[in-house]
Amino acid sequence: MKKAWMVVALCGALAPALSSSPPARAQGVTIPTALPTTLPTSFPTFPGVTLPTALPTNLSPPALLAPLAASAMHAEVRSVVDELIAHLPTPAANRVKGIPLKLDPGPTDINAYAGCDAQHRPFLAGTEGLLHAIFAISETKACDEIDGQHSYEAYMTAIVPVLTAQTPGSPQLPHNVLPAQCAIDPRVLSRARENFDEIAAFTFAHELAHHYLGHTGCAINDSPFTQGLATVEHLSQALVPAFNQPNELAADSAGLYNTMDTGRARMPRYQWTERGGLLLLEFFARLEGSGGGAIAFTRSHPPSTTREGWVRTAATSWRFLHP
Does a structural domain hold residue 252? Predict the structure, then answer.
């Protein structure tokens, strides 16, 4: 007990001395006694490394696009085609600059062509049914991406029996498929327009490639064409080259390169990639898997599953060449 009291007394005697002594310091090291009140104005430098000196100024999200009305699809495709041609190598661009875009008003046929008319002049063509299919894919995929819905699956469930019937109907988006909130959400509508343009870009870049690669035989000089829209009653009356699988895959590669070149050039706007082509080919693969062999597109192009793999490979190649 006596020893314990001695220890307490000793600690009590040392306490004032310890509290009044300055903090211990290692030789050459000064311990700060207060927090800094200013930020440093200079930073260490490293050879070959440049540090940013200010925050980026482009942090705001890109502006939303106006909704695309179904009645404006034709003009939208013309705009996409012109943008693709503007980013082709000069020799290829000269062969297709100003090429007429003919639109078949048939609502049930789903197809696109590179053809030659009776005077052996080249043209591009797409059907009304194709544009409605692209529009429906674009709207439902945007709704699912932005709003977490499952409207694309609902669309395919509703439309596959219509398109694979003995007498096919239109691929137009049924009124009860798209949830009401997606139909008025400006984010969804803007994303849908980006989807439409990207799918149309792949589709018509492929058809342009048939002309400038010489597959059609009628785009063989540099003479300009009459700019603008035209219509044809029946594309079967035009001269459309027969299916040729090597040519189709070559047009996929060249068309995808054109799409991705244009996508890179149009930044900071939405960048087109292989995604649009894969969305379209997924749609056709579903139809083919459900017995949709009577659709004109599936008769004039290789199987969509084959093309999907080819497009993915071409996209990988493009990125290797354009790091």
Answer: yes
